[in-house]
Design brief:
By secondary structure, the protein is an alpha+beta fold. It has 50 helices and 25 strands. The strands form eight sheets. Strands 5-6-20-7-16-10-11 form a seven-stranded mixed beta sheet, sandwiched between helices. It has a four-stranded antiparallel beta sheet with strand order 1-2-3-4. Strands 17-18-19 form a three-stranded antiparallel beta sheet. The longest helix has about 130 residues, at about 805-935. The protein is flat.
């Protein structure tokens, strides 16, 4: 107590009671000392007050400003009613925060205004967070319940209570919406949507407008949301309590009936509502009684009706049931309009023709309206001996009508709830549930009746359960921290509950009185007075005999006894029940089938819970249960359920009775705080140790109070203990737990005051030192200035004393004389110097001009001589070079032509040998066949007929042979003529070569003479002298440049000449060969056709004859005959196919030659006008040399073809005889011989194929040889150019000739070596099947497709492959396989391969959907494959950057645009999965690294913690510091940067395209911004100036990371951090003046007004030296932001937002033909093509 009294010092503040504001703040103006009888106070208005006090009853102290506005009321140092009320007021009015924690209670104040704090982004922000980590919110309570259900496997309950209009329904709705969002159901029925959809129906039939609330729930509701073992919603069940049935027939002023009636009346004009005969709501008695037909500011009833009807469909309720419900509701409205007329004092009547009564009977299927009229106005009395029917008065008849209406509505309400439960039926495998209880709070009105009594009774039960739960949690916390537990005295309301429900209690006496038919409210009240008068909680009012008082836990309530018995009985005449039961309307009949049925049936599939205590049993089981008994039973069941679950409490507060937004009535709020148990929680906490700090937090906050010795301790626990024992002497004021320090109420305020005093004293010392230094510096400056002034003044005084007028005159005269003399002397000197300078300049300029003239004359002469000499030298060098080049070209080309001729002859000889061997093998096989046929011929019976046919065939063959021989002789003659021509041309070439040689010799002699002349000229030039050296060097440089230019021109001319010669050579060769090949081809085709026709005729005739012979002679050998015939047919077909293939080869060759000929002709026409005279002789020689080998080759081929045709014709002519002879001798050997012939035919076919392949390979080798020859020609031309350059540079002609000779020899040697190496290569190719030039394709068989997918996709490991291979190798391999299928024009194979690739990649992504490396690898490869498909598609937009070879490799047969679209979709899927994995990995690091970790040393933002975390919220027990709650090491900013670097390196390792990499990094930066920004908005402890500095520092780290990774050019990445950067700036900037407000509005362009206001309201000072943001400043900023309504009103950033990903086209530079498949991939079954 002494420590508390010490706090009543000057300048501290206290709370004193006030009539208007409940509590009023005042400041202590004089220190209080024990024994003083008054406390001197200064009120806020400045007035003084002496407040009389006693030492034991001092007014409560006010918390320090730093603790005001805390998230948790129990974190306040002083826990009392005034502190709680003020904290809620500050949060509600100043910070615009409606939620506040009070221990385990969430206090929710109704803002009467829509707030932007319930979006999906807010739900995601609270998902997975511990309760207390974020600002208070209904979502935090829901997350806590969900997490405890999953962790502890225990059912949970959320109890939402409060007055009408406090927001209970909305809070319960948001809690259920949270569960629906975070726990999606696995089925397709979308149960969570149905759970949410049940709210519109229940609100329509159970909510109404009251004076306190426009949407007041007039019933209690407990919704059990069921979850499976994976904690996904699978169903729900709803229980209702105490529906206010009286509202159906009566509404107070300015109140309405249930919403559903007004919704139906608003839709009366709808066609489908015509049968209901509805009127305007003002025309029905039951809807216009309160006078308020509409609700101001609420959506119209018509749209609400549309929503209600659509909800029926969404829940799966049938159309018939919906219309049955509407019929019952419409009938209730018409029943209320039934007119009951007065027929006397005790009589009444109803007109049977009443239109409303008729509609009522029609809608409900009541057969007799007369019976209904009768029993509304009469009552049957059952006496002992007879039954009497007596009339009743109008009032009693109206009561009967209203009772019928109430029962109809109550039964309908129960049936609708039952149908909703059926639609939300919980499966049998329900694992756990979370219950949401939306129940009325404690009520006290001017007139309280039976409904208020039941409501307050339910709240007494809930308060008792709440007190026990809070007491239990406190006990668990103390036991966990090993702190001795002492009994806490708290209010126990069990006596009040016993007063109500115990035997002979209020309810028991009420039920007993209801048993008596003559029981009245007055009799029951008298019994209460008699039996309960001695109970201290029951009182009799002094001024009323119709009421009684009960002292509830919240307040004393007076109940009026009138109507208690009637409402408790809830009776309906039996006659009316019988009429309703006899109705033709099934729904109505079912209402009254079982009158004893409970009003709220228990769902069979509801969870069974064990009762905490036995429920009270009804006293009379044989009687009908009363309303009180039913309510007590349902309340007992509810308490059993709540006791079997872990409860969570939400207390809704109504801030004012006028429904004004953000208006705070202290008296109404404190009344509700007392009623809802918040102050009781405060009381329990205050009696123990309410303030609890971890050792780390205490050490960080109060280290300024520690001595050096205490700071030197390494154990923080010991340091904290030593500090507290030194500062607070009473050890009972605190306790040391295992992880926390527990403080009594007020001790933290004492420590804060001590800390502030210490800091203030330190600040005063610092300020004193600074101010002293400033004053001393100012004093020194003033002193120095004074000294300077003194010196100046003293100097002036001395001058005035020493200087006289005469002295001044003499001084002036002397000054004039000196000036004149000095001017004259300087003038004379200037004139002399000027004259001398002019004379020197004249002589100098004359000498320089004469020297320049002489030099110009000499230069002119030299230039003339040099010009003529250089012109002559240039002409001579050009002529010499031209002759040399021509000589070298002629020699080289002649040698090349000879070698080419030799090579072609060798090739022809090789082909002839191969064809000869093939013909011999063919003749051998034919000989064997003839032998077989000769043996069969002996058995022929009709040899004569066949011989005649054979003779005819022979004559035809001889004719053909004769023709072929003639053609052969003609070809031989042509060959001889060509040989003579070739020999003549060789002789002419030799003569020309001799002439050229003699000309060269003469030219050499001329050059020798010219060389001597040049040496004489050189001697003359050397005698010119040193004076002309510089000019000659310059001229030499220019001449060299001119010479280089001429040389380049000469080189271009020579290159053109060489190209022209090659083209002319090819042209001449093809021109000669083409006509002959055409003739040969035509002849061969005609001969082949004739031979084939004759062969076919002979084979058909032979086949017919053979069949007849076989049927006659060998009837039993049919199978062998057919086999032999098939063998012969196959053999003939193979021969025909061979001929056709040879013809096709020749035709393709001719087509190819035609194409090349056309191309060469075009080139020849363009360039034929160049150098015709120079190359005429060369063209003639090349033509003759090229014709000879081609002619020889064509002649040899024609001869071979003729021989083959002759052999075939003779074979076909002898077949008949041989077959007939063979059949008779060896029938048994047919099978073996047929097999042998088949094998020989196959060998022949293979030999033909090998021959064709060798021809193709030879053709390819010829093409490569021509390419090599072209390269040799280029090399020769280049070397000749170098030789020309060397000769041009040398002045010695003799050395030039020697060098030319050596160069020519060297070139000849190189040419010979190259030719030798080429021959070696060709020889090796001939022996080893020379390798083809690869086309960049991979060949695979159809059955190997699965192996390709398995090895390239499914078993591909990024780590083992990518590091040592080309990035994107799998994509290139797959594309090369695609190219081969396109090359084969196999559409089915291509489609199968593409589908297999896509399925395989999807499977890999699915199997490794959490592997970042695998996803990055396949994202990069699929992107590469997509680019390859585009690059080689042949489309112009994708082939602009291709090389000519890449354009040749384009796809030819198929359009893969559809597959490209599928691959693009697959890439998008992989990218989003990749980003999702990145998000999941990075998300746990962002908030700890960006916000919680102190990246700036010495900038600790610790302040008193705002929440005591629930003991079950974390498994760690509550320690904080370097480790989180789970014991893992806390993340830092370095962790975030390290993870980003890991992601970046992974993407770079897989060669991901830079644009795609930048998009992924941008998405990660947005995630960092969104999560950090959302936590700043939702965490009050993060809204401080120091935290803003830390955020900006971390943003700079991210920017440095971008620069380090060379990603700073992508400015959009930093743009994603702009909201966070501006929020950090807003936390740091000054927030006081109008200029500050304007600056905030102009700077925070990325923040919307809602976010700016939220940050300003959440700004929290860390120390007392900082100031909060004034509400006036916030309003000023809001007024400036009104013009910016175009911004999004969303409070949170959606962390799940994904930027649209793009895949720009990036062509690959990798040549496919050079790519090799590593052996480690086990792809040996793939063949490079």
């Amino acid at each position: 107590m002494a420590a508390v009294v010490e706090l009543y010092t000057q300048f501290n503040r206290v709370w004193i009671p006030d009539v208007e504001h409940v509590w009023r703040s005042a400041e202590i103006s004089r220190d209080f000392h024990p024994g003083d009888d008054a406390l001197h106070l200064r009120l806020e208005d400045g007035s003084e007050l002496q407040y009389p006090v006693e030492t034991s009853r001092l007014p409560p102290l006010r918390n320090p400003d730093i603790l005001v506005g805390e998230n948790d009321l129990t974190a306040l140092s002083y826990l009392h009613e005034a502190a709680v009320l003020h904290n809620i007021r500050v949060r509600f009015l100043d910070a615009r925060t409606i939620y506040t924690y009070c221990g385990i209670i969430l206090v929710s104040v109704n803002p009467y205004k829509a707030l932007h704090i319930y979006g999906d982004a807010v739900i995601q922000a609270y998902a997975g967070q511990n309760m207390g980590d974020m600002d208070p919110h209904i979502f935090a309570v829901a997350e806590e319940a969900y997490k405890q259900m999953a962790r502890n496997h225990r059912n949970q309950s959320i109890i939402v209570s409060g007055e009408s209009g406090a927001g209970k329904t909305v809070s319960a709705r948001y809690a259920m919406r949270y569960f629906a969002v975070v726990s999606k159901s696995s089925s397709k029925t979308r149960v969570e949507e149905k759970v949410l959809a049940s709210n519109p129906i229940t609100e329509a039939i159970g909510n109404a407008k009251t004076t306190r609330n426009d949407n007041s729930s007039r019933f209690g509701k407990y919704t059990e949301i069921s979850f499976d073992r994976k904690y996904r919603i699978i169903g729900a069940n709803m229980r209702t309590y105490l529906l206010e049935k009286s509202r159906v027939v009566f509404q107070a002023a300015n109140e309405r009936n249930y919403h559903i009636f007004y919704q139906m009346c608003s839709c009366a004009d709808r066609p489908d509502f015509k049968n209901l005969r509805l009127l305007n709501a003002g025309q029905f008695q039951y809807t216009c009684m309160g006078g308020a037909v509409g609700v101001e500011g609420v959506n119209n009833d018509r749209s609400a009706m549309e929503e209600t009807l659509s909800t029926f469909s969404l829940l799966g309720l049938k159309e018939d049931f919906r219309w049955d419900v509407l019929k019952v509701l419409a009938s209730i409205l018409h029943l209320g309009n039934v007119d009951i007329s007065h027929q006397g004092s005790d009589r009444s009547s109803v007109n049977p023709s009443d239109p409303h009564l008729s509609v009522f009977c029609e809608l409900l299927g009541v057969a007799s309206s007369d019976a209904l009229c009768r029993w509304l106005c009469h009552r049957r009395m059952v006496l002992r001996s007879e039954t009497v029917v007596r009339p009743v008065g109008r009032a009693q008849a109206a009561s009967a009508r209203d009772a019928l209406a109430k029962h109809l509505y109550a039964h309908l309400f129960e049936r609708v709830i039952a149908r909703i439960n059926g639609a939300l039926r919980v499966p049998a495998d329900g694992h756990a549930f979370i219950g949401v209880l939306d129940i009325y709070g404690f009520e006290t009105f001017d007139t309280n009746s039976f409904e208020q009594f039941c409501i307050n009774y339910a709240n007494e039960k809930l308060q008792q359960q709440f007190n026990l739960h809070v007491f239990k949690l406190e006990q668990e916390e103390y036991m966990r921290e090993d702190i001795p537990w002492t009994l806490i005295d708290f209010y126990d309301n069990q006596p009040v509950i016993d007063l109500i429900e115990a035997k002979m209690g209020v309810l028991d006496l009420l039920d007993e009185e209801c048993v008596f038919p003559q029981g009245t409210d007055q009799n029951w009240l008298q019994k209460l007075y008699n039996y309960l008068e001695s109970n201290p909680l029951f009182e009799k009012p002094r001024l009323s005999s119709q009421a009684f008082l009960i002292q509830h836990f919240a307040d004393k309530v007076e109940y009026q006894c009138r109507g208690f018995l009637e409402k408790n009985r809830d009776a309906l005449y039996e006659e009316l029940v019988d009429i309703m039961r006899a109705s033709d309307f099934p729904l109505l009949a079912n209402f009254f089938q079982d009158s004893e049925e409970q009003s709220q049936p228990v769902n069979k599939q509801a969870f069974r819970v064990k009762a905490a205590r036995p429920s009270p049993r009804p006293s009379n089981k044989h009687l009908r249960a009363t309303v009180g008994e039913k309510f007590r039973g349902s309340l007992s069941l509810l308490m059993e359920t709540l006791n079997a679950t872990t409860p969570h409490y939400v207390r809704c507060i109504k801030p004012n009775d006028h429904k004004l937004p953000f208006e705070y009535d202290c008296r109404r709020v404190v009344q509700q705080l007392r009623a809802c148990g918040v102050l009781e929680t405060i009381h329990i906490s205050a009696q123990s140790y309410p303030s609890r700090w971890t050792y780390t937090d205490f050490h960080s906050r109060y280290r300024v109070l520690m001595t050096n010795q205490e700071l030197s301790l390494t154990d923080r626990k010991q340091a904290c203990r030593a500090t507290l024992e030194r500062i607070i002497q009473d050890s009972n004021q605190y306790k040391f737990g295992r992880t926390k320090i527990f403080f009594r109420a007020g001790q933290l305020a004492y420590l804060e005051k001590f800390r502030v005093d210490l800091l203030r004293a330190a600040c005063v010392r610092v300020q004193a030192a600074v101010r002293g230094w400033l004053q001393r510096r100012r004093y020194r400056r003033l002193r120095e200035a004074a000294i300077v002034l003194q010196q100046y003044v003293r100097g002036q005084r001395s001058i005035r004393k020493t200087v006289t007028p005469a002295a001044l005159k003499r001084g002036w005269a002397a000054l004039v004389i000196q000036t004149t003399w000095r001017r004259y002397r300087v003038q004379r000197i200037y004139q002399l110097v000027r004259l001398a300078a002019v004379t020197i300049q004249a002589f100098t300029r004359g000498w320089r001009d004469r020297r320049r003239y002489k030099k110009m004359v000499e230069t002119q002469k030299v230039v003339v001589l040099q010009k003529h000499a250089r012109a002559w030298l240039a002409r001579r060098r050009f002529q010499t070079t031209r002759r040399l080049v021509i000589n070298v070209q002629l020699a080289f080309r002649v040698q090349q032509l000879r070698k080419k001729l030799e090579e072609q002859n060798k090739e022809n000889r090789g082909l002839v040998e191969r064809l000869t061997s093939l013909a011999s093998s063919h003749s051998h096989s034919a000989e064997r066949v003839r032998h077989l046929e000769a043996t069969l011929e002996k058995t022929a019976g009709e040899k004569t007929a066949l011989a005649a046919q054979h003779h005819k065939t022979k004559e035809d063959g001889s004719k053909v042979i004769g023709q072929l021989q003639q053609e052969k002789e003609h070809l031989i003659r042509e060959k001889q003529s060509l040989e003579h021509t070739f020999e003549a041309s060789i002789k002419e070439n030799k003569d020309d070569f001799e002439k050229i040689k003699r000309n060269l010799q003469e030219e050499k002699e001329k050059e020798e003479r010219l060389r001597k002349i040049a040496e004489n000229n050189l001697d003359l030039q050397r005698r010119d002298g040193d004076s002309q050296t510089d000019l000659l060097r310059d001229e030499l440089r220019r001449s060299k440049e001119e010479r280089l230019r001429l040389q380049r021109l000469l080189e271009d001319a020579e290159r053109l000449t060489s190209d022209l010669q090659e083209q002319v050579l090819q042209l001449s060769k093809h021109v000669k060969v083409i006509p002959e090949l055409r003739r040969d081809l035509h002849n061969m085709q005609s001969q082949s056709n004739d031979t084939e026709r004759r062969r076919r005729q002979q084979s058909e005739h032979t086949r017919a004859k053979m069949n007849e012979i076989i049927r006659k002679m060998l009837g039993g050998v049919g199978e062998e005959e057919e086999l032999l015939s098939r063998v012969l047919q196959r053999h003939q077909r193979e021969q025909a196919d061979g001929h056709e293939r040879q013809a096709e080869v020749l035709s393709r060759k001719v087509e190819h030659l035609n194409k090349e000929n056309l191309h060469l002709q075009r080139l020849f026409q363009e360039k034929s006008h160049l150098h015709e005279e120079v190359h005429l002789e060369i063209t003639r020689l090349t033509q003759e040399n090229a014709v000879i080998p081609e002619l020889q080759q064509s002649v040899s081929e024609l001869q071979r073809h003729k021989q083959e045709l002759e052999l075939q014709s003779t074979e076909s002519a002898d077949k008949t005889d041989e077959i007939s002879n063979a059949l008779q001798k060896k029938v048994e050997e047919h099978r073996l011989q047929s097999r042998a012939s088949e094998q020989q035919a196959e060998d022949l076919k293979e030999a033909m194929q090998r021959l064709q392949e060798e021809l193709d390979e030879q053709r390819d080798s010829n093409q490569r040889l021509s390419g090599h020859k072209v390269s040799h020609a280029q090399e020769v031309s280049r070397l000749s150019e170098e030789a020309a350059c060397l000769t041009a540079h040398s002045m010695d002609m003799e050395e030039q000739l020697d060098m030319k000779d050596r160069l020519i020899k060297k070139l000849n040697h190189q040419i010979r070596s190259l030719e030798t190496s080429e021959k070696d290569k060709q020889a090796a190719a001939a022996t080893l099947a020379a390798p083809k030039e690869y086309l960049g394709m991979l060949e695979f068989n159809r059955e190997d497709e699965a192996r390709v997918i398995q090895n390239v996709i499914l078993e591909m490991k990024p780590r083992g492959v990518v590091v040592n291979m080309l990035p994107g190798l799998p994509a290139h391999i797959l594309f090369m396989c695609v190219r081969h299928t396109d090359y084969l024009n196999d559409g089915a194979k291509l489609k199968s391969l593409m589908n297999a690739v896509i399925i395989g990649v999807k499977r890999v992504v699915l199997d490794h959907h959490k592997d970042v490396e695998m996803l990055s690898f396949w994202l990069s490869n699929m992107y590469c494959l997509l680019n390859c498909l585009k690059q080689y598609s042949g489309e112009e937009e994708f082939t602009k950057q291709n090389t000519s070879r890449q354009n040749q490799n384009c796809l030819q047969n198929f359009d893969l645009s559809e597959h490209r679209q599928i691959l693009s979709d697959l890439n998008i899927h992989i990218y989003h999965q990749f980003i999702s994995v990145l998000d999941k990995t990075l998300t746990p690091m962002i908030v700890p690294g960006m916000l919680e970790h102190e990246s700036l040393q010495g900038m600790s933002s610790m302040k008193p913690p705002g929440f005591r975390k629930r003991s079950s919220s974390s498994s760690g027990g509550g320690g904080s510091g370097a480790f989180d709650a789970a014991g893992d090491k806390a993340f830092t900013m370095g962790s975030v940067l390290g993870q980003l670097s890991l992601f970046h390196s992974t993407m770079l390792q897989h060669a991901m395209e830079r644009s795609l990499l930048a998009q992924a990094v941008k998405q990660m930066f947005f995630l960092i911004c969104a999560l950090t920004f959302n936590n700043v908005l939702l965490r009050k402890d993060m809204s401080s100036c120091r935290k803003g500095m830390q955020i900006r520092c971390n943003i700079s780290y991210l920017e440095e990371w971008l620069k380090d990774k060379e990603l700073q050019s992508s400015g959009t990445m930093m743009d994603t951090l702009k909201p966070l950067s501006q929020a950090a700036w807003l936390l740091q900037v000054s927030k006081c003046t109008d200029d500050d407000a304007k600056e905030i509005v102009e700077t925070c362009t990325e923040l919307n007004p809602v976010q700016i206001v939220k940050i300003l309201n959440s700004y929290t000072p860390i120390d007392d030296f900082e100031k909060r943001v004034a509400p006036s400043f916030v309003r000023k900023v809001q007024s400036l932001l009104q013009d910016q309504d175009d911004r999004s009103p969303q409070l949170m950033l959606d962390a799940r937002y994904r930027f649209q990903v793009t895949f720009p086209f990036c062509p690959s530079a990798q040549p496919l033909e050079l790519l090799q498949v590593p052996t480690s991939l086990s792809l040996g079954f793939l063949t490079r093509v």
